[in-house]
Amino acid sequence: MKTHALARWTFPVMGGAALALAFALPARSGTVHSAPPPPLESYATDEALNRLVLPAQTPSFVGGQTPPMEVTPGNRFMGILVSHVALWEKADSGLAISSDQRRRFREVLLKAREKIIKSDAEDLRLVQLFEAMLVRTHLPAKKLAAANARIGEVEGKEGMQFVSALKELQAVLTGPQIMTLKRMNETVLPSSDVTVTSALMFADRMLSIRWQLAMKSPLSAKARESLSARYDKARNWLFSLAAEKTVSDRRVGDLLAKPFVDMEAFGELEKTAGPLEGRFWGTFLRIVTLLSPPAR
Predict the structure, then answer these.
(1) Alpha-carbon span 61 to 59, nearest angstrom
(2) What is the tens place of the pLDDT at every residue in 107-149?
(3) Could you say which of 146, 150, 263, 270 is the most buried, measured as most Cβ atoms within 10 Å of its Cβ?
(4) Cα dihedral sign, 27-30-35-41
(5) In the chain, where are the structural domains located?
(6) pTM of the entire predicted model
(7) Per-residue pLDDT reduced to its tens digit, 141-168
(8) Helix 198-215 crosses helix 263-290 at what angle (to 10 degrees)?
């Protein structure tokens, strides 16, 4: 959904929902907790698909998962920032962080947290409105596209807040400290996580709802067959993009997991991750439009 990769990483989030960072690290951001839903087997097919579809002001699908689905990147962003500082300040890091550096680290973290909280709150509000539009009988395509674009803007801003804070933190380090961290980078192994981006979980669940609505419409056998063929083809494409997005997310995550982040290399990865994020959610929107029964 997002066109900025940092706004949607692997941490399970909606596409964004980004940075690809928004779906790239295994963390929980912007989660909304609710009581566990009843066992799935107690519902008929339609009820099982729709049991968590609630009005826009409720947690809806986002909060009804076990564990809840993460839909905003704020917690992941802050987790990355804090984990870097914690590593640098460890007694056995060999960096000998001074008291002045500790003070400056905390100033940056507090300032970043305040900004990210505000962005995350706005992002969560927009994501829930986006989801509410997706489960209407008649899809408001123009409003949906506008909401998607707005979410991209907010998550892009939030991603830049994260990048700015990381740069500020690394700027506090001295030359010798940076060299020590760069040597430590060589010992970090890549992530072993091969879980496909949770953006797919959200997208495919929304597609299942659109499919149910489409199949309830009065269609001829030929029309149903044609719609099924197009849906299957489009869904396969979405799964392929999800795999490609996951590979990209892991590359970003591996880079951000290093003790000292090469921001130039990060920028190069974002040149690919951002457009890929946009393609994933653009494809999703085209498919849900395809599966939308015409208004009568």
Answers:
(1) 6
(2) 999 999 999 999 999 998 998 899 889 888 888 889 999 999 9
(3) 270
(4) negative
(5) 5-290
(6) 0.76
(7) 899 999 999 999 999 999 999 999 999 9
(8) 10
